[in-house]
Amino acid sequence: MNKRSKRYKLIEKKKIKEKITIDKTFDAVKDSCTSKFDESIDVALRINTKQSKGGDFNLRSAVKLPNGNGKKLKIAVLCESEKIEEAKKSGADVAGSDDLLSNISAGKLNFDKLICTPGMMSKVGKFGKVLGPKGLMPNPKLGTVSNDIKKSVSDLKSGLTEVKNDKDGNVALSIGRKSFSKDKLLENYKFFIEFLKKEKSENIKGEFIKNIYVTSTMGISYKIGGKG
Fold first, then answer.
1. In the predicted model, what is the mean pLDDT of residues 79-87?
2. What domains lie within the chain, and their CATH numbers?
3. Is the pLDDT of residue 104 over 80?
4. For the whole prediction, is pTM greater than 0.85?
5. How high is the mean pLDDT of the chain?
6. What pLDDT score was predicted for residue 227?
7. DSSP state of 2
8. 132 Cβ contact partners less than 8 Å away, ≥ 6 residues apart
9. Given this model, what pLDDT does residue 8 score?
């Protein structure tokens, strides 16, 4: 049985039990960030995936929060050899052509996101079993297949993030860090919720977003619009 730390027990005692506003919820979440590192502030929610026709709805898109999410990503660019220098100047941490493909083949995935030019997709496709399970397979819908290398790198560095649901309809996203002001966190949160509403399929009947929780990496969660 896992034992709670003294730090966690202390913030748990301070948890607000009654229903509070979104504004006060974010105050409470930030107050629970008592660890020494810059904790992530995360939103976890469940969506309705049942459609009247066409099977279950699957959300898979990308969102760029107005204030970013504060995460530092190592970006790799797979491109033609003549574009490697351009990729490096665009801010890529790793850039290569056949040499990068060799590293991928060997399982040397020393990056967090992979951008690929359209011309290299035919070569990277056979490594789907290596990249796919780690969420690294380039996808045009997610902004990771493009000839505009500079824009793609900039978007990922500034917080462009994949959003998708699991088989139970759960969706999770980091919307910032504890070092963010409450106003920035709230702006990111509201932007994300509106983004989700726009992604809703017209075949879904009834309530789309079923519940929403906000928490920090080492803190306790609060339910938006209700008790935690």
1. 97
2. 6-69+160-223 (3.30.190.20), 75-157 (3.40.50.790)
3. yes
4. no
5. 91
6. 41
7. P
8. none
9. 67
In angstroms, how far is the first alpha carbon of the chain from the final one?
23
Number of neighbouring beta carbons within 10 Å of residue 63: 18
- CA-based Rg of the chain, rounded to a whole angstrom? 20
- Residue 108 exposure: Cα atoms within 13 Å on the Cβ side: 7
The pLDDT confidence band at residue 219, using thresholds 50, 70 and 90, is confident
